[in-house]
Design goal:
Layout: E1 22-27, H1 31-43, E2 49-51, H2 62-67, E3 75-78, E4 83-85, H3 87-97, H4 108-135, H5 139-142, H6 153-170, H7 183-195, H8 207-217, H9 220-224
Parallel strand pairs: 1-2
Antiparallel strand pairs: 1-3, 3-4
The chain binds glutathione.
Length: about 240
């Protein structure tokens, strides 16, 4: 019988090469760009911004697709010309450059706990929420950009509500991951704050979640990150 070798006999070190600084953030109305603005405001980091007209579909034009072929916001451009898209990837990158105050975590365990809650809310609540919106109230805007399934709008919203009900029972106090305010809180807050006025509020009987939502909204960065216009009456 052969023994299974351990995966690594060598101690693992974190990557230490010099980080490339952000040059500009491609920014717009919308919950994902707001997550990054909220995060930057919490950190007190200033990154030059280039605004993209998302409602006018500027993000679907060739010059923007060269930067981010997914045609979505936000995108972070680094000073060496690299483009980083996907909100989670942008935030992870910024967190490595600016670890304090920690919004993912200061230890491996804290980071893992935060990522666990972040993925839970993103996959189980935020994604179905936004699909319900794309296929429902915002169908006219988005059906020309990607394949939409209007018959699924109500089901997606129901999946998101089920996720909120589950969260009500299992979430921590005062923040989702426990005593630390983290990107998991920022992520869920930005989705709910945008979509609550277009048919996807937190159900009123979910008292812990409603109290949590109020607490997040009182943070200075929650206010500082709101987009100046309110398309369809939404805060984005
Ligand atoms: N998975 C992407 C999603 C980004 C996304 O959906 N951004 C929205 C704004 S919240 C967008 O660009 N929508 C415009 C479009 O798709 O044309 C991320 O996490 O950054």
């Amino acid at each position: 019988m052969t023994e299974t070798p351990t995966l690594s006999a060598q101690p693992q070190h974190r990557h230490t090469s010099a980080a490339v600084e952000p040059r500009r953030l491609y920014d717009s109305f919308g919950m994902n760009p707001r997550i990054v603005r909220f995060y930057l405001a919490e950190k007190g980091i200033d990154v030059p911004r280039h605004e993209v007209d998302i409602l006018g579909a500027e993000n679907r034009r060739a010059d923007y697709l060269d930067r981010n072929p997914a045609g979505q916001l936000p995108t972070l451009e680094l000073s060496d010309g690299t483009f980083i898209a996907e909100t989670a990837a942008i935030i992870e990158y910024l967190e490595e450059l600016h670890p304090d105050p920690a919004l993912i975590g200061s230890t491996a365990q804290e980071r893992a706990i935060t990522r666990m809650w972040w993925r839970r809310v993103e996959i189980g609540i935020c994604r179905p929420m936004v699909l319900g919106f794309y296929y429902g109230e915002a169908l006219e805007i988005f059906e020309t950009r990607f394949r939409c399934y209007p018959e699924q709008a109500d089901a997606q919203k129901q999946v998101a509500r089920n996720g909120l009900r589950w969260l009500e029972d299992v979430m921590n106090d005062p923040w989702l991951a426990g005593r630390r305010f983290t990107v998991a809180d920022i992520c869920l807050y930005c989705y709910i704050d945008q979509l609550c006025d277009v048919g996807q509020p937190i159900p009123s009987d979910l008292q812990r979640l409603n109290a949590w939502f109020f607490r997040v909204g009182e943070r200075r960065a929650a206010q500082a990150s709101i987009w100046r216009e309110r398309p369809m009456g939404m805060r984005g």
